[in-house]
Specification:
Elements lengths: L2 H4 L8 H12 L4 H15 L4 E8 L4 E9 L2 E2 L4 E3 L4 H8 L3 E3 L3 H4 L14 E8 L5 E9 L9 H38 L3 E6 L4 E4 L1 H7 L3 H4 L5 H4 L1 H16 L6 E3 L16 E10 L2 E10 L4 H25 L9 H14 L5 E4 L6 H10 L8 E5 L8 H6 L16 H4 L4 E5 L6 H13 L1 E2 L8 E2 L3 E6 L3 H7 L4 H7 L2 E4 L10 H16 L8 H9 L5 H16 L12 H8 L12 H18 L10 H5 L3 H11 L8
């Protein structure tokens, strides 16, 4: 019998009617009911003997039926294997398979199955998620040939996609329920007491540890204000912190309750507690979670913790001191251009090469890039390439295994491993030894390295920000810096302006520093006088912001509690302006080269008078009124060298 004759007994499918029938039959259903409605309506709409939706089990490589309709009845808990079936073709090749006739002839190796006895035709399509991971399979079969109609395939694909979406939704619901269950078990098993409150500080939840600590039943105190639990004084203290947390931004709405929190349960004994308070929102309403632990028997340990906390605060202050002020102050066009560049590159993972003179704030800009990046929750690890001995820098970068070299008594992770998932800041990259530059290039290109003394390759996900005050292009030409590494580092070069290019920012930065340093010294910040502002603007600041900070700090020290005096801390030229001396304007405006020439002549004169001694009493730096390090930096910039004698 030919195919045309075999098709004679089959009604022609009206695709619009089929689409409408399946949509109307499934629109109000979800979950398992949706799958049952889908397969029955698919079977009726396409006039087939059977239809099913299955879920793929990658562990067993089997298909488990979510709904299986065959010959007018449901087949429960059906599982079947793939080899030799048209389903295998559809799943392995990731495409729709349509066998309009003689399916048994085309798939003779399919396992015998009474359910499929008499099957002639097959139409099946795999289901994938948005990452193209296999979810399952939708198929229909018939005991008659199945027409190869133009709209049948897209119609079938539509409902396979709908079935995949429903399966994903069910899996997500299952994941949510599992996470909620885990969270509930986590809270219930916690040893610390956990109390949740609403905005009015009414108790909404307590875990078993809290019930035990306060000797109450959670159901009995639910909805009661927290003072019935902790006492009036402790409740007032909590209310204060609630107000503080509500004003904070998201991500910072948590706090330790300082000192020892002292709940006084009505009818119970007061106890000393260590406590935290955090805030979150649910359905637009704020809730507060208090976690506390009875530390009455651990007062001595608490005192020790407080001592350690004080040490931590001291170290944090030292780190802050090294990092400079918290934000980048100023509004000059040069600074705005640099900040605009930071905004452009921060959200990418591009490697950044920060270039600028000493003291321009390269580390500050590196921190600004990291803070505004997608990696801001990850670590920012700093490495000063100039401060590490050449023999140890490879171990510092990549870590080492135990026994890798003399003194390696235990395994140690390197800076790149510590920075995994975050950012590494390579300061003074121009000082990196040539023999290590190739290994750094490999990390930048491949994201992998081997620790010293190890054979196992380690992969990391690290964003690199490098900084230098050297001319790396010149170093490449001189052969002291690899050209390929230079181009890999300078994907996004960022040049920082010197302070002399930011004359309008000098006073802004100075006022910021005065306020910060005064606070650190426990003094009241004094405003800058107009003459002081003029003096600060008149100086060229060869040491940039770092030198300005030193000048401000010296002025605060020498001025005591009175107005800030800069005449004794500023270099001579600026101090003259400070003192109010009359300075006649030059006959013509001097260009930069002329100014540098005058500065060079003045520095050489000071060196001659000091017998070419830079530091110490009577040294050239003291004669001009700047630090020896700044004087040496300017000597290098102006090309001043001590003349040789015959």
């Amino acid at each position: 019998m030919c195919y045309t004759e075999r098709m004679a007994g089959r009604r022609r499918i009206d695709e619009d009617a089929a689409l409408r029938a399946v949509v109307e039959g499934t629109v109000s259903e979800t979950g398992n009911d949706f799958y049952r409605a889908l397969v029955t309506n698919l079977s009726r709409a396409l006039d087939t003997h059977g239809a099913w939706v299955t879920e793929y089990d990658p562990g067993t490589e089997q298909l488990r039926a979510l709904a299986f309709w065959m010959g007018g009845k449901w087949i429960e808990d059906y599982v079947y294997v793939l080899p030799g079936t048209p389903c295998e073709t559809a799943i392995n090749e990731g495409r729709m398979v349509h066998v309009p006739d003689r399916v048994v002839d085309l798939y003779p190796d399919a396992p015998p199955n009474p359910l499929f006895s008499g099957t002639v035709s097959y139409l099946g399509v795999p289901m994938f998620d948005d990452r193209h991971r296999l979810l399952g399979h939708v198929a229909v079969v018939d005991t008659r040939p199945m027409p190869d109609e133009n709209r049948l395939v897209p119609l079938f694909q539509i409902f396979a996609s709908r079935a995949a979406a429903e399966l994903l939704r069910l899996r997500l619901e299952s994941d949510v329920r599992e996470r909620e269950s885990k969270l509930s078990r986590l809270i219930d098993s916690a040893m610390d007491a956990i109390v949740e409150m609403d905005r009015d500080l009414a108790v909404t939840m307590m875990n078993p540890a809290a019930e035990k600590l306060f000797a109450v039943n959670a159901a009995r105190v639910h909805g009661q204000r927290v003072e019935h639990l902790v006492g009036m004084d402790a409740a007032k203290e909590l209310a204060t912190f609630v107000d503080v947390l509500e004003r904070r931004r998201d991500g910072d709405r948590h706090t330790w309750i300082p000192g020892l929190f002292t709940p006084r349960p009505p009818g119970g004994e007061p106890f000393l507690a260590e406590a935290t308070l955090s805030c979150y929102e649910a359905n637009g309403r704020p809730f507060f979670t208090m976690i506390l632990r009875n530390v009455t028997e651990r007062v001595k340990a608490e005192l020790r913790i407080e001592n350690l906390s004080a040490q931590t605060e001291y170290l944090r202050a030292e780190i802050e001191e090294n990092h400079g002020f918290d934000e980048i102050a100023g509004r000059s066009p040069a600074l705005r251009a640099a900040l605009q560049a930071v905004s452009q590159v921060a959200q990418t993972d591009a490697t950044v090469l920060i270039q600028g003179e000493t003291g321009t704030g390269k580390e500050l800009f590196a921190r600004a890039i990291h803070k505004r990046s997608r990696r801001h929750n990850g670590p920012l690890i700093k490495v000063n390439c100039a401060a590490i001995p050449a023999t140890l820098i490879e171990s510092e970068f990549f870590g080492h295994e135990k026994g890798a070299f003399t003194g390696a008594t235990q395994r140690r992770d390197g800076r790149f491993a510590l920075a995994d998932g975050g950012t590494i800041f390579l300061d003074e990259i121009g000082e990196l030894p040539l023999e290590l530059q190739g290994k750094l290039l490999r990390v930048l290109q491949e994201g992998e390295f081997e620790p010293v003394g190890g054979s196992k390759t380690r992969r990391v996900d690290v964003r690199v920000i490098a900084a230098t005050n050297r001319d790396l292009e010149r170093a490449v030409k001189d052969g002291t810096f690899r050209e390929d590494l230079y181009y890999r580092l300078s994907v996004f070069p960022l040049r920082l302006p010197s302070l002399r290019e930011r004359a309008d920012d000098v006073v802004i930065i100075a006022e910021t520093l005065v306020e910060k340093l005064s606070r650190q010294m426990g003094r009241r910040a004094q405003p800058l006088s107009s003459s002081a502002a003029v003096a600060l603007r008149s100086y060229s600041w060869p040491g940039n912001v770092r030198e300005l900070r030193n000048v401000i700090e010296r002025a605060l020290i020498t001025s005591g509690e009175g107005p800030l005096q800069f005449d004794r801390v500023l270099p001579d030229a600026a101090a003259v302006v400070m003192a109010g001396a009359e300075i006649s304007a030059p006959a013509e405006i001097m260009v930069e080269d002329r100014i540098r020439q005058i500065e060079r002549i003045n520095m050489i004169a000071a060196l001659d008078r000091a017998a070419w001694r830079v530091g110490g009493e009577g040294g050239a730096a003291g004669l001009i009124g700047i630090s020896p390090s700044t004087f040496k930096s300017r000597m290098k910039a102006l090309g001043i060298r001590r003349p040789t004698t015959g």
